[in-house]
Design brief:
single chain, about 170 residues, 5 helices, four-stranded antiparallel β-sheet, alpha+beta, binds flavin mononucleotide
């Protein structure tokens, strides 16, 4: 799929078929995630690949807005590792770039996916940390739930000229 078409037609998919995702496809998604830019090229990320049915079900019980994990074959927990940072404080941006790459790669591969936020939600982050045994130096930023789509959505049109400024804010 053409890159611009993938960007403009990606939507959050929260309903999945029971079809599994092949190991090759999973690896290609992670390859796309790790191709993301990062401050100082520090790549301060870790990815927990979750295919175990019981753990996917636990995600649905632990994260109030990730109930769709109950019927998904795959989830990826994206964690930032502050000990790997070269320029302090940029890990959220680095890991978010990786998340978006993964979402776009999933969509371009015919999969559906949704970004479920974890950090900095104080009611969710500690539970996800505990569920996956994330060590102190790492922070679970997001949970991506994936599968073969069981719903279709039209592209969203969000271009808003009122948010554009020419050469100076307000112009
Ligand atoms: C930081 C972040 C956190 C999000 N958290 C959730 C979530 O917990 N559960 C969920 O179903 N969707 C979540 N979403 C998806 C948004 O609801 C979705 O991207 C937004 O409504 C726009 O819809 P679209 O992705 O279909 O274009 C999150 C998105 C972002 C960027």
């Amino acid at each position: 799929m053409d890159t611009l078409k993938a960007i403009l037609s990606r939507r959050s998919i929260r309903s999945f078929t029971s079809e599994p995702i092949s190991p090759e496809l999973t690896e290609s998604l992670l390859r796309a995630a790790m191709a993301a830019p990062s401050a100082g090229n520090a790549q301060p990320w870790h990815f927990i690949v979750v295919e175990d049915r019981a753990i996917l079900d636990q995600i649905a019980e632990t994260h109030p807005y990730a109930k769709m994990a109950k019927e998904a074959p795959l989830a990826v927990v994206v964690c930032g590792d502050t000990s790997l940072e070269r320029y302090k404080g940029f890990w959220v941006q680095d890991c978010s770039a990786a998340v978006e790459n993964l979402l776009l790669a999933a969509h371009a591969s015919g999969l559906g996916a949704v970004w479920c936020g974890v950090h900095p939600n104080e009611a969710i982050e500690p539970n996800i940390r505990k569920l996956f045994g994330v060590p102190a130096e790492a922070i679970p930023l997001a949970l991506i739930v994936l599968g073969h789509p069981n719903e279709t959505k039209p592209p969203a049109e969000r271009f808003d000229p009122s948010r554009l400024h020419r050469d100076h804010w307000g112009q």
